[in-house]
Each structure stands twice: as structure tokens, then as C-alpha cells.
């Protein structure tokens, strides 16, 4: 007679010779009821007729890797042939308006398997003798929870020399605790049977690899504001990098644990210990660095009983099996807590290389100037943007023209540029239609990019209109200057010449840029359509 190991091993020989019992699982040395649950080898011709309309496949997923002591979850989903699906009663029906044969009437539902009708007309107990049909392969009866008669599939899972049985519909999910599972990779397999009148028919098999580890599974994502490609591990000097640590703990095993994060950024800044999963660090030097992170969890657990004759220890250390990681042998430590409880330590490790280079840190638009045009050019308005940047020297410039909310892009123009000394350039853009626009200017190199934005109002019309607007602006400025001079004279009455300093020059230039922006907003002229490249030296 067949045993569960013969049926569920799928031709492979288990390497497990001894194991600890998993809660709710049974040994695969038990006998298998082959009469009620027939077993077919791969390649058996009966597989072709096990399901109407084609072959059913099964997909088995897992949330592995799992930290030892936590739960690992498995989910199996049945995938039916084309145009078939499960209805609310657990029956398999043909979808309406599907091209697969047989054609489905709009007035009458056609079933692949109408198990509800069979149960209602026949009755589960009346169609089988002495209730022998509603049992699992090992003879144990189905659990009689609500809706159990509508679960038309039997799932038998197998791993680590043991099996688990359950009934379900077109999908099933279950979890198993890993405390008694050895560290390393293991295979979970599942065999699925469907209901039939006198027996259960095998319809699909599936398997998945899962991992049990004594290292906390962690994932680290990195973000930097001006980094052009966050996946290449190349970052920018003098700009903070945000590190976000995700601990893979889907069963919430570490919910009541104290977790700490120890960082070594590899640049000589020393060790940094934090309780938050998110931190930032700024590299001030260029070069290649090795980042090391250790995540430690202090997990509260029940204390083990102490033998009365033995001396009362202050700590007990158990060495676990080594894993495949490049860290040292794991150590599980159990110690007393101040509250009288006990806890164990688990660590997780992350290590990666980082390259730090010079990059563009900041872009500023310091001046916007309307360009005078001849009568023949009156249909276009030109604006010069004077742009400066900090950090590295750019190799590309892109100008994006959007609506006033900066949400809807209207045009994008990108050009290569050559900046050899100082990051100061003039970008000339041509505008055709009047209106208010959001201008985004991006300077970039191979590894970084930075953005500056401005709001510009563009009026249509000829060049004479533009010139008139400038004259009005300058006239008002002269009036304001005269009033200001009169007030200053009345207040101080004496004139004292002061030597102009460098700081004052910078303030005056800043005022010029500010007034230029003020003029561009209140006496605007244009909007972008096409770039006029290199119309004069130094202009993009």
C-alpha cells in the first residue's frame, strides 16, 4: 500500500532523516487511501481527462524568507482553462461572452461542474455509503465549519517529512511556525484533488522553495535628491543620502521587540546607532566606500525552566547552525530582563559598495530678460534666462514649459552644452503664444541633475509694444527713485561718500536680478516654442 511519502514526494527522495514535529502536521509515513484518492505518476494518460475543457494548473507562493520562530505563509491558487471560473457557490462555470466552446446562452448558465446541484439533489450523505466520502486521504473526517460542503477541493501540503490536509475553494492559504524547522532551504509541495461522486480526482500539483534563517531579512533603499539614477549606487558629494531599512516580518514576529540599527558608512565617520529605520548621511569626500549595517532585535520569549539542583545562571548561550551569509556564526543569547522575563537576540546584516562623485547640487535663475525684435520677428517673443549652478559642471540642459500650475507640460527642449570653467550660462528660448507659464530649467550631468523654476507671463504683439512696456517700467522706477532720494535727504541732510565694497556690489547685482524678474512678471513678453541655439556666443 502507498504511504504519504510515496504520493507527495513526486519522485524525489527526502534527505531529512530526523525532524521535529510541526504543530498540526502528521508524519508522511502514514498510509494513503488510494481507493478514495487515486495516485497518478507524471505522464499517466488519465491526467488528460481529469478536468473538462483542459488542464488545471496551480501556483504556489510564499512570503519566505522567514526568521526562525516566525510564521511562513503559503498561498496556492488554481488557474482554470480559458473561459472557466468559480462562482459564489463554489461551482465552476463558463464565462459569458467568451469565445471558448461550448457557447454560453445569455439566458441560462452552463456549468463545468455543478457541485451545488449534486449536493442539493442527492445529499452528501445519501450519495455515499456510511459517510466514507467526506474524509481526507488519511481517513480523518473533514472539519464541519460553516460552508464546508461548498469547499470542493482537497489540498495536501508536504514538507520536512510531514503533511497537512485542508479543504478549500479555488485558493487556499495557510501558515506554519518555523520554530521546529531547521535552517536552510526547503521545498513545500501541494497536491490538489477535486470532488467526484465516488472518489476524488487529482487535478494539479505545485511546489515552491522557502528559506528559514536565523538572520533578520532586511532590505535597504537609498534616495538622494539630485541623484539621476538611484539604482547604480553612484551618489553625489555634499548632498544627504536617505537610507530606509525594511525588515521583512510579514507575520509580525518582531512586533514587541526592541530593534536597533548600527551604521558604518565607511568614510571614517565612525559608528552610528539609531532606533529609527530611516537615517541620512552626507559624504563629503569623493571615492568608493563600503556601507555596513547591523540590525539587532531583542525578542521577548518565555523563560526556560531552571533545574533546581543547577546553579542559577545569569545567561545561557546556544550556538545556531551557520547560514550562507558572509557574517560570522550566529549566536542566540537568552538573558533575564529587568521585568523578570527573558529575551533572545537576532541580528540582520547588510553590506554594499557606494561610489561618491562630484555632482550638480543647486540651480538658480538669476535673471530673465526680454529680447528686442525687429518687425519681421514680431510673431515670436524671445527671453534670455541667465542660470547659475553649484557643484559639478553640467553637460545637458532641458527646458520644460508647463501651465501656470506646473502640472501639465506643453513642450520640452533639451540640448547638450559645454561648460569648461564657471557654471554660468544664458539660455535663450522663443515663445509664440501669449499667456502665463511655468518654466522648469534642469541642468544635468551623467550622475546628477538639479532643477530651478520660474513663473513667466508672456504678451503677444510687436516689438514696439515690448519696448513701450520697458519704458513705462523705467519711468516708474525713476519716479520711485526720486521720491526715495527726497526722503533720504530730508532725514540725513548731509551727504557722506562711502566706498563701495564687494558685498554691496553683490547686493546691487541681486537687486538687479530681482527687478529684472519683477519686470518679467509685470511687463512680460513671451512663451516657448523652439530654441534658437547659439544665436550669439555664450547663449544656448
TrEMBL record:
Q: Which residues form the PKD domain?
A: 255-295
GO terms, biological process: cell adhesion
Q: Please report the name of this protein according to its UniProt entry.
A: Protein QNR-71
Q: Which InterPro entries match?
A: Ig-like_fold, PKAT, PKAT_KLD, PKD/Chitinase_dom, PKD_dom, PKD_dom_sf, PMEL_NMB_N
Instruction: Give the membrane topology.
Output: Single-pass type I membrane protein
What does the record give under GO molecular function? integrin binding
**SMART domains in the record, alphabetically?**
PKD
Q: Which residues form a coiled coil?
A: none
Keywords in alphabetical order, please. Answer: Glycoprotein, Membrane, Signal, Transmembrane, Transmembrane helix
Biased region (Polar residues) positions are: 315-331
Task: Report the sequence similarity comment from the record.
Answer: Belongs to the PMEL/NMB family.
Q: Where is this region: Disordered?
A: 313-336
Cellular component, GO annotation: plasma membrane
Task: Determine the domain of life of the protein's source.
Answer: Eukaryota
Q: Where are the transmembrane segments?
A: 469-489
Localisation per UniProt entry: Membrane
Amino acid at each position: 500500500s502507498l504511504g504519504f511519502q510515496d504520493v507527495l514526494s513526486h519522485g524525489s527522495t527526502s534527505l531529512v532523516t530526523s525532524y521535529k514535529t510541526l504543530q498540526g502536521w502528521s508524519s508522511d509515513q502514514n498510509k494513503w487511501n488510494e481507493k478514495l484518492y487515486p495516485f497518478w505518476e507524471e505522464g499517466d494518460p488519465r491526467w488528460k481527462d481529469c478536468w473538462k475543457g483542459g488542464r488545471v494548473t496551480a501556483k504556489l507562493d510564499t512570503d519566505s524568507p522567514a526568521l526562525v520562530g516566525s510564521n511562513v505563509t503559503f498561498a496556492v491558487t488554481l488557474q482554470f482553462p480559458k473561459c472557466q471560473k468559480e462562482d459564489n457557490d463554489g461551482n465552476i462555470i463558463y464565462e459569458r461572452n467568451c469565445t471558448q466552446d461550448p457557447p454560453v446562452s445569455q439566458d441560462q448558465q452552463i456549468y463545468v461542474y455543478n457541485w451545488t446541484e449534486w449536493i442539493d439533489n442527492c445529499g452528501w450523505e445519501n450519495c455515499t455509503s456510511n459517510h466514507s466520502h467526506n474524509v481526507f486521504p488519511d481517513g480523518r473526517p473533514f472539519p464541519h465549519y460553516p460552508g464546508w460542503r461548498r469547499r470542493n477541493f482537497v489540498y495536501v501540503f508536504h514538507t520536512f517529512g510531514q503533511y497537512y490536509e485542508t479543504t478549500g475553494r479555488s485558493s487556499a492559504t495557510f501558515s506554519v511556525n518555523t520554530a521546529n524547522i531547521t535552517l536552510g532551504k526547503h521545498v513545500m509541495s501541494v497536491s490538489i484533488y477535486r470532488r467526484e461522486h465516488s472518489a476524488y480526482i487529482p487535478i494539479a500539483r505545485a511546489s515552491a522553495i522557502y528559506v528559514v534563517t536565523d538572520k533578520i531579512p532586511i532590505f535597504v533603499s537609498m534616495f538622494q535628491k539630485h541623484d539621476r539614477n538611484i539604482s547604480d549606487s553612484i551618489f553625489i558629494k555634499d548632498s544627504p543620502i536617505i537610507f530606509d531599512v525594511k525588515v521583512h516580518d510579514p507575520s509580525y514576529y518582531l512586533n514587541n521587540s526592541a530593534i536597533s540599527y548600527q551604521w558604518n558608512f565607511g568614510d571614517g565617520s565612525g559608528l552610528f546607532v539609531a532606533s529609527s529605520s530611516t537615517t541620512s548621511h552626507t559624504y563629503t569626500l569623493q571615492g568608493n566606500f563600503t556601507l555596513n549595517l547591523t540590525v539587532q532585535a531583542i525578542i521577548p520569549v518565555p523563560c526556560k525552566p531552571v533545574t533546581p539542583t543547577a546553579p542559577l545562571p545569569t545567561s545561557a548561550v546556544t550556538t545556531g547552525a551557520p547560514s550562507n551569509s558572509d557574517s560570522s556564526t550566529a549566536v542566540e543569547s537568552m538573558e533575564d530582563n529587568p521585568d523578570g522575563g527573558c529575551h533572545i537576540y537576532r541580528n540582520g546584516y547588510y553590506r554594499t559598495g557606494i561610489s561618491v562623485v562630484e555632482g550638480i547640487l543647486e540651480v538658480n535663475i538669476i535673471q530673465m530678460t526680454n529680447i528686442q525684435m525687429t518687425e519681421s520677428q514680431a510673431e515670436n517673443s524671445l527671453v534670455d534666462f541667465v542660470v547659475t549652478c553649484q557643484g559639478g559642471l553640467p553637460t545637458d540642459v532641458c527646458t520644460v514649459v508647463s501651465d501656470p500650475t506646473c502640472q501639465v507640460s506643453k513642450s520640452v527642449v533639451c540640448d547638450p552644452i559645454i561648460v569648461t570653467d564657471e557654471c554660468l550660462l544664458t539660455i535663450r528660448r522663443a515663445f509664440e503664444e501669449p499667456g502665463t507659464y511655468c518654466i522648469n530649467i534642469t541642468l544635468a550631468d551623467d550622475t546628477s541633475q538639479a532643477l530651478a523654476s520660474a513663473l513667466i507671463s508672456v504678451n503677444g504683439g510687436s516689438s514696439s509694444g515690448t519696448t513701450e512696456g520697458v519704458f513705462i517700467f523705467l519711468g516708474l522706477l525713476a519716479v520711485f527713485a526720486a521720491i526715495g532720494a527726497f526722503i533720504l535727504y530730508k532725514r540725513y541732510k548731509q551727504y557722506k561718500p562711502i566706498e563701495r565694497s564687494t558685498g554691496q556690489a553683490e547686493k546691487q547685482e541681486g537687486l538687479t536680478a530681482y527687478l529684472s524678474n519683477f519686470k518679467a512678471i509685470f511687463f512680460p513678453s513671451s512663451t516657448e516654442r523652439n530654441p534658437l541655439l547659439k544665436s550669439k556666443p555664450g547663449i544656448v
